[in-house]
Design goal:
Structural class: alpha+beta
Largest sheet: 6 strands, antiparallel
Strand content: 5-15%
Strand order of the largest sheet: 1-2-3-4-6-5
Helix content: 55-70%
Length: about 850
């Protein structure tokens, strides 16, 4: 055997063994008797070194000669691994732009053939077409000093999806939600005319936060009309570049491949993810045995092969419980995806993902070739309450039990109200016409039409009006149209009070809804008053796991946070978190929401390590619950980005901000207040990095929404004016800087209490401007006022108060008044003087 042939076999066997869990690797090597003994011995030695995590080690004949060198703007740190066609190095970008961890993939020494180079160029071409949150991003490229091409990619620190799920004992449902992220990434590739052709757990990593990253498009293929004949074989010199255990029958036969071949591979991955083993394990470990099994043996039902160990890793008490979980629908979903016959599979990854979504939602799945009883059973399972009531009514009729006339009338009224509301919404959605042809009807247009019609058509029934006004108000709030939302919530509250009384639960809900939109508008005092009314009504009768009590307690935390009382905010948010865990469990959306709020309160107390940990936990929950782009995920990632930013984790923070802006743009659009708030945070980050021109431009983008998506009272307006003023000052435009900073302070004084720490913040930042232009007298007046407010609102040791103290010290030193500097230096915490 020539050295290149032997090297390819070592690489192949090493990659296959490392795909297994550590205990199975040695056994696999012993069974791999089709490989020469010297190849197996070398692989055994490489596995030992890898498992000891010796760093850096050079597996598979790789070269470490790039370690310590610079490739373009990147400094190579270590050899991270070697795949079939190239070595992967970890590197950092270390120039004047920024610092960022990256992965650099280089054609391996000794593989510089025309075929290897062609594959490498094709991978670069493919990655350049793909931009998706679940696909590792291509960042750059170039040539090494010895003429080999390299790709610079997003550095992904994660585990194979099967390992990640097993380590956390994820349930079947959580694994399915995570798998839908994989489907989304593959479907994006397919929409861009790319088939992956090597989908396996080792190429599907999951980060610590629970984000899937699809890797290694080294043997992928562009399927557009200009790329039909890529001329690149999937075998060379007896070595396979794909992984037979996950390859479709047509791939093993060497037939033409389509996107449906990726569907098969996904089916095999899903089989392993849910059942704990691969479908074809019976014939042996040699390549020929595996290939024969894929071509000849039917895929077994996943439920038929589960073990107690697999059940334990999926949070089930035993194999029988897991078997029941997989039996039926999930068996059929997996078998449809992994069908040997192409025509029998799902026609697309999107169809597979949709069937999984339907299973998770309790709806009939397409893979379950339905009969009436199956669909009826699904309906009853989704509507247990309705079914139970129907059964009780049937028993009541048989037994001769007759409801009272009053009960019948109440039921009839509720039924009539529900029918009127549903009928109104149905007619509304079907009757609204676009103002211009050839486009979808915007939801805002639908809501505006609803707002015009609701009083004229349903105004005579206060109960129906209250329900519909609340629905429309919530919809306006979700769109960021807070003035419209407030108007409908006020009307709904009036209906609720007339129907049920001022001390009713319905009235408490109405006050809570109104408080939420007032808080979103930045009207803290009015929001506080509304929430206090709701709590006074509701708290006396609330239970220990009451969801409305949790929401109202959360609102107290939000008000405390807005007023700068971070310790109080933490206490309220922790109470709400405990209530929600009691009623909803540990993985619910609202639990993640409460965790984020606790983290914000911790950050405001300068406890950033604790805050980051909670933010990451919240992001993990929401990503597993919502694999598609989702506003809740965007909110959680925005909070995490801020925590990373303030801790000085520059590269991670910038990546997070850019991702959140992309999420918000996709989910809510650029006119939404939440998009503006993230844009403001990114402007602050950019200012801290010294890019003043960009910070000013981002701030102006936020201010462009003033009076449109953002009312003037919204906190992002005053905050963006402050960032704009600071950026202009730094760029030498002191006149423009002063104008923006004064306007920011005026807005805060107009909409916030005089003792708000945010008012003090504005005074302090404006003092910085006057220190810069050497107007020390004006700076002193503002900084002393800020000190009085901050000490009263936050305490002397709060980071914001300490920042203002350092400002006063700098002012008096600049002014030549050392006694004043000494007075305020004495109040600095010891760490601040180091």
């Amino acid at each position: 055997m020539t050295d290149p042939d032997r090297l390819r076999q070592v690489r192949e066997l090493f990659d296959r063994a490392m795909d297994l869990e550590p205990p199975a690797r040695r056994e696999y090597l012993e069974r791999a008797t089709t490989y020469p003994t010297d190849v197996r011995l070398e692989v055994g030695d490489l596995i030992t070194r890898a498992e000891r995590t010796e760093a850096p080690f050079v597996p598979l004949g790789g070269s470490a000669d790039l370690i310590g060198q610079r490739l373009g703007a990147y400094h190579v740190v270590r050899l991270a691994g070697v795949g079939g066609m190239g070595a992967v190095y970890e590197a950092v970008r270390a120039d004047d732009q920024y610092q960022k961890r990256v992965a650099i993939k280089v054609v391996q020494s000794g593989l510089g053939s025309d075929l290897a180079m062609a594959r490498f160029r094709q991978e670069r071409q493919i990655l350049a077409t793909l931009e998706h949150k679940n696909i590792a991003t291509l960042l750059d490229g170039g040539m090494t000093p010895d003429g080999r091409p390299f790709l610079v990619m997003e550095f992904v620190e994660g585990q194979p999806i099967t390992t990640w799920c097993d380590a956390r004992a994820l349930s079947v449902a959580d694994r399915l939600r995570l798998f839908r992220q994989v489907c989304g990434a593959v479907q994006h590739a397919h929409r861009n005319l790319v088939t992956h052709r090597d989908l396996k757990p080792g190429n599907i990593l999951v980060t610590a936060e629970g984000t899937v990253k699809l890797l290694d498009f080294g043997i992928a293929k562009l399927t557009g009309p200009e790329s039909d004949a890529d001329g690149l074989p999937l075998t060379r010199g007896g070595a396979r570049t794909f992984t037979p255990e996950y390859a479709s029958p047509e791939q093993i036969r060497g037939d033409a491949l389509t996107t449906v071949s990726d569907v098969y591979s996904l089916g095999v991955v899903l089989f392993e993810l849910l059942a704990g083993r691969r479908p074809h394990t019976g014939r042996g470990s040699a390549l020929v045995d595996i290939e024969r099994a894929v071509l000849e043996d039917p895929v077994p039902r996943p439920s038929a092969v589960v073990t107690d160990e697999a059940a334990r890793r999926r949070g089930e008490r035993g194999a029988e419980r897991l078997r029941r979980r997989l039996h039926g629908e999930l068996d059929n979903v997996i078998l449809t995806a992994a069908k040997a016959e192409i025509d029998g599979r799902y026609a697309s990854v999107e169809r597979l993902s949709d069937d999984i979504r339907r299973y998770l939602d309790g709806l009939p799945v397409a893979a379950q070739r339905g009969w009436a009883g199956y669909r009826a059973a699904k309906f009853l399972k989704r509507n247990r309450g309705v079914a139970a009531v129907s059964a009780l009514l049937l028993v009541a009729l048989i037994g001769g039990i007759v409801s009272t006339l009053a009960q019948a009338r109440r039921a009839e009224a509720a039924q009539s109200r529900a029918e009127r509301v549903n009928g109104f919404l149905r007619s509304l959605l079907s009757s609204v016409k676009p103002t211009t042809g050839g486009r979808d009807v915007p939801i805002s247009e639908v809501l505006d039409s609803a707002a015009r019609r609701v009083l004229s058509e349903l105004g005579t029934d206060p109960a129906t009006g209250a329900e519909l006004e609340t629905v429309i108000g919530e919809s306006y709030r979700a769109l960021g149209r807070y003035e419209d939302a407030e108007r409908h919530f006020v009307t709904a509250l009036g209906h609720r009070r007339r129907i049920s009384g001022d001390a009713s639960v319905s009235a408490a809900i109405g006050w809570s809804n109104l408080g939420g939109v007032l808080l979103a508008k930045g009207e803290i005092d009015r929001a506080d008053s509304a929430y206090a009314r709701a709590l006074a009504i509701y708290r006396p009768g609330a239970g220990p796991s009451d969801s409305l009590l949790a929401s109202l307690t959360e609102s107290q935390g939000s008000i405390a946070n807005a007023r700068g009382r971070s310790a109080d905010a933490e206490r309220f948010h922790r109470e709400a978190l405990a209530l929600r865990k009691t009623s909803l469990g540990d993985r619910a959306d609202m639990v993640a929401f409460s965790m984020n709020n606790v983290a914000v309160a911790l950050g405001n107390q300068n406890r950033w390590a604790e805050a980051e940990s909670l933010h990451r936990a919240a992001v993990g929950i929401l990503r597993s619950n919502h694999p598609e782009p989702n506003v809740l995920v965007a909110d959680a990632e925005d909070a995490l980005a801020t925590a990373l930013d303030i801790q000085g984790k520059v590269a991670l923070a910038e990546s997070a901000y850019v991702r959140v802006l992309e999420l918000r743009r996709a989910v809510t659009g650029v006119a939404h207040p939440q998009y503006s708030w993230t844009l403001f945070n990114y402007a602050m980050f950019t200012l801290a990095q010294g890019n003043y021109t960009k910070a000013a431009a981002l701030s102006r983008s936020v201010l462009a929404q003033r009076g449109k998506g953002l009312p003037e009272s919204h906190p992002a307006i005053a905050a963006s004016l402050q960032t704009l003023g600071r950026a202009l000052d730094k760029d030498g435009d002191h006149v423009g800087g002063e104008r923006a900073l004064r306007e920011s302070m005026a807005l805060r004084k107009r909409y916030l209490p005089a003792d708000s720490w945010l008012v003090a913040s504005s005074e302090g930042v404006l003092a910085d401007h006057y220190i810069l232009v050497r107007d020390c007298s004006a700076a002193e007046s503002l900084a002393l006022s800020a000190d009085r407010i901050m000490v009263a609102a936050l305490g002397n040791d709060h980071p914001n108060t300490q920042t203002n103290l350092r400002r006063l010290v700098a002012l008096y030193e600049t002014w030549g008044r050392p006694e004043g500097a000494a007075q305020f230096r004495a109040r600095l915490k010891p760490a601040a003087t180091e």
